[in-house]
Amino acid sequence: MRFPLPDRLRAAFPARIAQWMWPVLLCLAACLPALAAVLPSADAAGSRDHEHLRRFDGSVVLSYSQAAYEAFALPLSPLVHVPGETDAKNNAVFRPSSSKPLEGRLTSFVYLLPEGRSTLEIVRNYRDEIVQAGGSALFECSGEDCGGEATYGMFGGGSRTSLAMFLRAPEKVTDAYRSIAWCARDSKHADQRYLAAEVPAHGMHVSVHAYRIVAPDAAAPCALLNGRTIAVVDVVDAREREQKMVTVSAREMAGAISSSGSVALYGILFDFNQAGVKPESEPALIEIAKYLGDDPAMKVLIVGHTDGVGSYAFNLDLSQRRAEAVVEALVSRYRIARTRLTPVGVSFASPVASNRSEEGRARNRRVAIVDAG
Length: 373
Description:
Blueprint: H1 7-12, H2 15-36, E1 60-75, E2 79-86, E3 92-96, E4 99-112, H3 119-132, E5 136-142, H4 163-167, H5 180-186, E6 189-199, E7 204-213, E8 229-238, H6 250-260, E9 262-265, H7 282-294, E10 300-305, H8 312-334, E11 341-345, H9 358-364, E12 366-371
Parallel strand pairs: 10-11
Antiparallel strand pairs: 1-4, 2-3, 4-8, 5-6, 6-7, 7-8, 9-12, 10-12
Helix pairs in contact: 6-7, 7-8
């Protein structure tokens, strides 16, 4: 293919040379922005090291988050196939047959390791650090022995779910699309190694997932990570959940609904990313049943609300299933007529606080009772 040349270039170069240089100039113009991109040399804004776990020397924090109280499932065995279950991207679902459910402060890091460091060296160093603190390894694996899709990051489809996907649900990732931190989570990888450990002296559990990025043909900025080692480290510090949400009595529900048409309830609890109503929700369910029993003609909407972490579509489905679970509990346990209850999920479409803080997200996670006339 030949390209037309500006007159100034036609005059400056012999015709044959100029005709072949023009495509090169066009390519350089398109490629220069990508060539200008560089890997970060400073930690992500707002990040700080965990007080009881040092980083590997020379590592850079690409992503950092901390939740005051969160759930985390620590794998204690390889991932195995769950027959008949697929995820939203048509992956066959794999989960560990044994895991330790944890709750507490969750601090998460995505580290870029110094060039030339292997995943074996990284995991061994973390294990040594944990042992020196009086802790011990609970589970270790490498490569395909970890189960699931050994080469997938967090967002692959049409195959099997990966260890990365189990450790953090893709819809819960808040790194900006195609940021360097997103690339570190998304890119295919090799040489994966995993360590689950505990440090009883600090009431701490540690998850370390290390892998080498394989992205020779990726677009910028993901291509910058090709061949580099990444470590995703999650630290759960056990602590009691602050009991800030008070059970609303049937009388208080009646008063709130009479004056404003609805009441927000924080005593109905669910496991992270799940729709099953937890046993601790019983006091709140009893009060809802009392309220409905006092007025047999009353019909209500049971409205599920989520925080803003994850996609709208995922949270819309989750909030709907949670609302349906509350309805099912009221019908099956307290014999409230199903025709009086309409479950509605609204995702994070109706926040009562900012989703930029853990305190705000906690206020947004709620079930509301709305007068349906």
